[in-house]
Amino acid sequence: MDVVLAINIVRLFRTPFREPARKGARLVYNPKRIAKHYLSKPGGFAFDLITSLPTHWFFYETPKGTWGYAWRLLRCNRMLRVLDIQDVLYRPLSKTKIDLSVLELVKLSIYTFVTAHWFACYWAYLGQCVPIDPTKEWDTWYVAERNTSWIEKQFLQDATPTRLYIISLYVSFSLIFGGPNDINPSTDSEYMAQVTMLVLGCCFWAYVIGVGVSILSTLYPHLSEHRRIIGMLNYYIHDKSLDADLAARLRTYFSETAATRYFAKNNAELMMSMTSGLRGESSLRSAGALFDNVWYLRPGSRVNADLELEVEFFSKLTLAAQVIIFVRREAISTENLIIVEKGLIARDGIVGLKVVGDDMIINDSDLRHLGKAKAITSLVQTVCVKKDDFFDLMPFFPQARKCIRRAAVMQTRET
């Protein structure tokens, strides 16, 4: 462990750091600046050095019952390393897709085990502080003697460190969570220790309950919203006296689309919070496969092979798009561009169409195929781009405008 901590200090002298947001939030790779930052920041080199020193070596021969023995057993300076857990947990956050609520639960679990570990070490230390008296009268010691440790009372004098730690951990968790505990204190210091651990354990348990419940309540927000919607729906069905078949279809629709309706509404807000560059890049990545279904927007198609469509165009197009869900046998208008994400639709006897309304770029409605499509599966999830929104974007993106004009001319000739 000492070698690992020493290597970690050396590694941090070469680890890039990110500047504050007011300075641009840039990553710094300069070795001199990294070393200066690590030496000067609070919780940096000084903290790591103090918490890494093997101070327990200085008390190796210290007898039981002394403060030196307690320091050696508890590794008091090493305990402070737990304060660094925040940085350890959040350091890889930008590289993972773990939910913050799950991360908070992980952090809460770590804090719980660390607290229990501290209590267990202290309880084991107290049990070893009282010297063993070989002349003790075993018929009366339990009642009369108050200078017998819990270790001697449980006949654990020859227990291995592992077994002693497991038993102490059991006592620790019992005191924190209020569970059953048959390891009773004996000396006054052990009674005081259990009182202290009970008070601290109750406070910590109240904190765990409060934080844990708040985290779990926000872990799946779409389910909370779904429960509210279903409650409103049940009242609506009862108030309007709807028949059982329609009520079942309504409940199926809202149950199957709970996550889609919630996240589709929040995705637009998330996109608007990004910078234009990030919004365009993320839109291009997420909507690339979606708009590839539209032949004249697909990269390398015959109308845009020599063009480079603007990234911002796809960003605006994605923001203008709306998620629309249809149920079976429901008519789907082809007045606007409709791209099917989930489910099956049919038109004119053709099943499994991925796109309808892609001819909206033709100005003459007589040349368009305006026959309505129909959903043939229980639920059909589509993305709709309205014709007006589509053409409102054209003047600002010359490459996209040129591509659309070519496609409109080509479709008109084919018609």
From TrEMBL:
<dbReference type="GO" id="GO:0042391">
    <property type="term" value="P:regulation of membrane potential"/>
</dbReference>
<dbReference type="GO" id="GO:0005886">
    <property type="term" value="C:plasma membrane"/>
</dbReference>
<dbReference type="Pfam" id="PF00520">
    <property type="entry name" value="Ion_trans"/>
</dbReference>
<keyword id="KW-1133">Transmembrane helix</keyword>
<feature type="domain" description="Ion transport">
    <location>
        <begin position="11"/>
        <end position="210"/>
    </location>
</feature>
<feature type="transmembrane region" description="Helical">
    <location>
        <begin position="162"/>
        <end position="179"/>
    </location>
</feature>
<feature type="transmembrane region" description="Helical">
    <location>
        <begin position="191"/>
        <end position="220"/>
    </location>
</feature>
<keyword id="KW-0472">Membrane</keyword>
<dbReference type="InterPro" id="IPR050818">
    <property type="entry name" value="KCNH_animal-type"/>
</dbReference>
<protein>
    <submittedName>
        <fullName>Voltage-gated ion channel superfamily</fullName>
    </submittedName>
</protein>
<dbReference type="InterPro" id="IPR005821">
    <property type="entry name" value="Ion_trans_dom"/>
</dbReference>
<keyword id="KW-0812">Transmembrane</keyword>
<dbReference type="GO" id="GO:0005249">
    <property type="term" value="F:voltage-gated potassium channel activity"/>
</dbReference>
